[in-house]
Design goal:
- The complex is a heterodimer.
- Helices cover about 35% and strands about 15% of the residues of chain A.
- By secondary structure, chain A is an alpha+beta fold.
- In chain A, a hairpin with a 2-residue loop joins strand 1 (about 5-10) and strand 2.
- Chain B is α+β, with helices and mostly antiparallel strands.
- In chain B, about 35% of the residues lie in helices and about 25% in strands.
- Chain B contains 12 helices and 14 strands.
- In chain B, the strands form 4 sheets. Chain B has a 5-stranded antiparallel β-sheet with strand order 4-5-10-6-7. A 4-stranded antiparallel β-sheet of chain B has the order 11-12-13-14, with helices on both faces. A 3-stranded parallel β-sheet of chain B has the order 1-3-2, with helices on one face.
- In chain B, strand 13 (about 210-215) and strand 14 (about 225) form a beta hairpin.
- Classes of the chains: A alpha+beta, B alpha+beta.
């Protein structure tokens, strides 16, 4: 048996210590050890984007990262977006614009959208599609997702400037 | 499917990393960003006895210019290189190519050295390294050595690195006045895996092409230069006739290969258009400086 390694990390604001086997993927660590089942595993090879989380402030595939590598890391999952109660602004926009049906891909879309809008506050449809191309949705045909992201961008702008555009 | 069992090492220095690597005699793998390696582990296509994580090795994430060279440590994340002002100033072709490498969550983890050392036949960076004439710095237990990009890529997932060597850094010649660049690719879906990709660097003097380096990936197992097209450009102005002639010569001597993504015939068909598009882009000076 390979040696287990002690890791200390922060997940959704909570400091944790765990002993992990090297081959344990971050996605499985989150789902099975921490019971944070909002992170979904679709393809397990980095193509579908459903398992996307934030590692030290940058989006990453949790299925292509080992938990053992995360010693000292700060991780945020979809559960961090609305920890208690009301949906975040981006989640609300996805809800209002029907940007999901089955919802399997949604956690990944939400985290990438959050990172994207922080960098590109006023995106076009084209830039939204480029930015989210690492996420596969088999329900919506993406049209409503693009709408939701644009709507969220407008709302965020309103919040920043205090009035609508 | 989950990876088979392996030991995990997270050395603090490259000398430690290559020492562990050598001790496993080919049964350990180096882990860079993991964006290509971990899929192979997840599907048990490879089952190494140990993974040596390079992410905590000192100095491997450095970006610096040294005289006429831009040095990128092998663990520089692709998204970091993409937004680096030093990279943009020294080697605009690298900056221009980065968005093609994959979506943001992949580029946030994926590294410069990882992509090059993995040597996937449709990876974009090997084309850039070959077009720019980059030098790979390999580090082994006993010594470091330089490997020119043209000699580095040997075939599918195979490089000139020995089993106990790692790619430490990549040295790119800094672009000078008169250099023009372009990167273009053909894909099945917008910005998906490349079917064929072309990276080129031209040196222009008073409107005439002094030097041309055109590299193509995706047509076969390793990056190729296009000597016939290059030869046709040298000494000429980049007018429409010259561009077309160079594009038409691009398929010369290439054995195009088919795969699940597209047949050889399509690759043969699309390469001249890509070369033409790249030359037009370079002629209109999308990147680079005039002299």
């Amino acid at each position: 048996m390979p040696q287990r390694h002690k890791i200390e990390l922060t997940v959704n604001g909570k400091k944790l210590q765990r002993l992990v086997e090297p081959r344990l993927l971050l996605s499985d660590f989150l789902r099975y050890e921490l019971r944070l089942t909002g992170t979904h595993v679709g393809c397990a090879h980095g193509v579908c984007g459903a398992c996307t989380v934030s590692i030290n402030g940058s989006t990453a595939r949790s299925c292509l990262t080992f938990a053992v590598q995360m010693d000292g890391a700060v991780i945020e999952t979809v559960e961090s977006l609305a920890p208690r109660g009301p949906l975040s602004l981006i989640q609300q926009a996805f809800h209002e614009h029907h940007a999901l049906q089955c919802g399997f891909c949604t956690p990944g879309f939400l985290l990438s959208t959050r990172e994207f809008l922080a960098r590109y506050p006023d995106p076009s449809d084209e830039t939204v599609r480029m930015a989210l191309r690492g996420h596969i949705c088999r329900c919506t045909g993406y049209v409503n997702i693009v709408r939701a992201v644009r709507a969220a961008a407008a709302k965020l702008k309103e919040e920043r400037t205090g009035h609508g555009s | 499917m989950k990876p088979s069992r392996f030991e995990y090492f997270s050395p603090a220095s490259t000398s430690e990393a290559v020492e562990i690597l050598a001790s496993y005699q080919g049964r350990a793998r180096l882990l860079a960003g993991g964006q290509s390696l971990v899929p192979l582990l997840n599907f048990r296509i490879i089952t190494p006895e140990a993974l040596i994580d390079l992410s905590r090795c000192r100095g491997l994430d450095e970006i610096r210019s040294e005289g006429s060279v831009l040095v990128l440590g092998s663990m520089v994340r692709q998204s970091t290189a993409e937004t680096s002002e030093i990279v943009r100033t020294c080697c605009p072709l690298i900056t221009a190519t980065m968005p093609f490498l994959g979506p943001s969550p992949i580029r946030n983890r994926g590294t410069i050295g990882g992509s090059l050392a993995h040597a996937d036949r449709v990876a974009e960076l090997p084309a850039v390294a070959v077009a720019l004439g980059a030098i790979m710095i390999a580090e082994g237990p006993k010594r470091r050595r330089e490997i020119p990009a043209r000699e580095f890529f040997l075939g599918d997932l195979t490089t000139a690195l020995a089993s106990e060597e790692m790619l430490r850094e990549v040295r790119f010649p800094i672009s000078s006045d008169g250099e023009r660049f372009a990167f273009v690719e053909a894909t099945n879906r917008h910005h998906d895996l490349a079917l064929v990709a072309v990276a080129l660097k031209l040196v222009l003097n008073a409107g005439r092409c002094e030097q041309a380096a055109i590299a193509v990936v995706g047509v076969g197992p390793k990056p190729l230069r296009l000597p016939a097209s290059e030869g046709c450009l040298v000494g000429k102005r980049l007018d429409a006739a010259t561009v077309l002639a160079a594009a038409q010569l691009s398929t010369e001597g290439i054995e195009f290969e088919s795969d699940v993504h597209t047949p050889a015939s399509y690759r043969r068909h699309v390469l001249p258009s890509l070369v033409e598009r790249a030359l037009r882009q370079a002629a209109s000076n999308a990147h680079g400086n005039d002299r």
